[in-house]
Structure formats: C-alpha cells, structure tokens
C-alpha cells in the first residue's frame, strides 16, 4: 500500500515542470524514507535526481518499495487540473498497475477532482546567452565566469563572492580547491533553470572532467539535482572567447 499526502500540492507541479523537458518517461521509486527519481535525457547527456523525503509529507505510507513508471508529460497535464493551493494525495494498492491522484481544495474542504492514470511498473536568467550553443564556466580566485560567443560577438558574466548582503539567500558563496574551466551545452543549463521557482538559492558544483551538478533545495524536504557532462575537444575550443 502506497499513500502520500502533500499539503503543498504546487510543489509537485513545480518539480515536474522543472524536469519534463529533459525526461519523457521515468521510474518514480518509493521507499520508507522518501519519493525519488533518477533518470537521463534521451541523448544521455544530462541526468536529473529528485528526492522528496518522507517527513516532508503530511502523511506518508509505503509498506514496501515500489517503482512506478510514468510519462512526465501526461503527469504535468493532469496536475494542471489541480489548483496551486490544492492538497495532492497519491495512492496505489499492492498488486495494482494504477495510481490515483486526488486533489482537495482546502477552501471547500472537499475533493474537487479525482483522476486515475495508468502506470507501467516495469536565479539568474542569463538571457544574453539564448542564441549561443555552448557556455564555458570557469572558477578562479577572482570568481565564477560564464563565457560564450555567438554570431554577433562574445559575452562574459562574472560572479564574485559576496557574503555581506543583508539577506543570506542573496549571498554568493564560492568555495574553490583548484581552478576549473569546463564547457557545457547551453540548452541543458537553460532547462535546469526552470527549477529556480523551487528555491531562492542554487548550488553549482564543478570538478575537472566530471559532470556539473546543479542543485536546488526543496525547503527542508529534499532537493532536485541536475547532472550535465562537459563538452571536450573541438566544441570546447570553439566556445572559448
């Protein structure tokens, strides 16, 4: 028996909106500790990892580990039927191949809609880069630099450490063990920023010749992480301004 009740239903809507363009179909894994997902995009270039811990739900019951394969596009369409203030409950019986989504409006204290879908169990917006294909992220003692070039020229944005701001969520914190410079496909990074509505802060982790990790904390409940492999060879050299 699986039964999950999420008071902040809009949270699930935002999470799925943030990853639907990267992943079409994925397995959602449920265990006693939480609700999670890990999947790669169709090109096997980017990876997304999601965790919603059990304690973040108003009610969480998972009698046994279960994996539910679902189409994210269909889930997003279905969740559009729920209001932003609605409470979302997910239920799945043992041995069943369906999961029930129930939307409850706290304003009317009654269920407004119950939908069943079939499942198969097998922020900064750097719009200046929008017409470019790649971006170089470089970390030095001077700060973090985003560089790209396009048909009309080059662009460079530098973020320097700033921990003296009044609001902690507006601070820029840079921790560097060694300098690093990597090239990434910009369209994936742009897609990752769709998760910025989930958190006031974003953490970017870089290491030479390893995927970049872009993480958004989901309150005290968990996180959504995106992994993207760097580009190497000719593409990397052509991107450097």
UniProtKB/TrEMBL annotation:
<dbReference type="GO" id="GO:0006298">
    <property type="term" value="P:mismatch repair"/>
</dbReference>
<dbReference type="GO" id="GO:0030337">
    <property type="term" value="F:DNA polymerase processivity factor activity"/>
</dbReference>
<dbReference type="GO" id="GO:0003677">
    <property type="term" value="F:DNA binding"/>
</dbReference>
<dbReference type="GO" id="GO:0019985">
    <property type="term" value="P:translesion synthesis"/>
</dbReference>
<feature type="domain" description="Proliferating cell nuclear antigen PCNA N-terminal">
    <location>
        <begin position="1"/>
        <end position="112"/>
    </location>
</feature>
<dbReference type="InterPro" id="IPR022659">
    <property type="entry name" value="Pr_cel_nuc_antig_CS"/>
</dbReference>
<protein>
    <recommendedName>
        <fullName>DNA sliding clamp PCNA</fullName>
    </recommendedName>
</protein>
<keyword id="KW-0539">Nucleus</keyword>
<dbReference type="InterPro" id="IPR022648">
    <property type="entry name" value="Pr_cel_nuc_antig_N"/>
</dbReference>
<keyword id="KW-0238">DNA-binding</keyword>
<comment type="function">
    <text>This protein is an auxiliary protein of DNA polymerase delta and is involved in the control of eukaryotic DNA replication by increasing the polymerase's processivity during elongation of the leading strand.</text>
</comment>
<comment type="similarity">
    <text>Belongs to the PCNA family.</text>
</comment>
<dbReference type="GO" id="GO:0043626">
    <property type="term" value="C:PCNA complex"/>
</dbReference>
<dbReference type="InterPro" id="IPR000730">
    <property type="entry name" value="Pr_cel_nuc_antig"/>
</dbReference>
<feature type="domain" description="Proliferating cell nuclear antigen PCNA C-terminal">
    <location>
        <begin position="133"/>
        <end position="231"/>
    </location>
</feature>
<dbReference type="Pfam" id="PF02747">
    <property type="entry name" value="PCNA_C"/>
</dbReference>
<dbReference type="GO" id="GO:0006275">
    <property type="term" value="P:regulation of DNA replication"/>
</dbReference>
<keyword id="KW-0235">DNA replication</keyword>
<dbReference type="InterPro" id="IPR022649">
    <property type="entry name" value="Pr_cel_nuc_antig_C"/>
</dbReference>
<dbReference type="Pfam" id="PF00705">
    <property type="entry name" value="PCNA_N"/>
</dbReference>
<dbReference type="InterPro" id="IPR046938">
    <property type="entry name" value="DNA_clamp_sf"/>
</dbReference>
<dbReference type="GO" id="GO:0006272">
    <property type="term" value="P:leading strand elongation"/>
</dbReference>
């Amino acid at each position: 028996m699986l039964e999950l009740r999420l008071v902040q239903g809009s949270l699930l809507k935002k999470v799925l909106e943030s990853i639907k363009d990267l992943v079409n179909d994925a397995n959602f894994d449920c265990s006693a500790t939480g609700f999670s997902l890990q999947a790669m995009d169709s090109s096997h270039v980017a990876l997304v990892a999601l965790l919603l811990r059990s304690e973040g739900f108003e009610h969480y019951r998972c009698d046994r580990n279960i994996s539910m394969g679902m189409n994210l596009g269909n889930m997003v369409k279905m969740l559009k039927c729920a209001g932003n203030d609605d409470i979302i409950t997910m239920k799945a019986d043992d041995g069943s191949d369906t999961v029930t989504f129930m939307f409850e409006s706290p304003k009317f204290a009654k269920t407004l809609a119950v939908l069943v879908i079939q499942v198969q169990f097998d922020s900064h917006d750097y719009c200046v880069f929008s017409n470019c294909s790649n971006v170089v992220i470089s970390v030095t003692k001077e700060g973090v630099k985003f560089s790209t070039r396009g048909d009309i020229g080059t662009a460079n944005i530098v973020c320097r450490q700033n921990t003296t701001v009044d609001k902690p969520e507006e601070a820029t914190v840079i921790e560097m063990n060694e300098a690093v410079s990597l090239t990434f496909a910009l369209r994936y990074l742009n897609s990752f920023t769709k998760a910025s509505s989930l958190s006031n802060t974003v953490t970017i982790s870089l290491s030479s010749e390893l995927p970049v990790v872009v993480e958004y904390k989901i309150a005290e409940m968990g996180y959504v992480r995106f992994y993207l492999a760097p580009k190497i060879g000719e593409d990397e050299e052509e991107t450097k301004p």
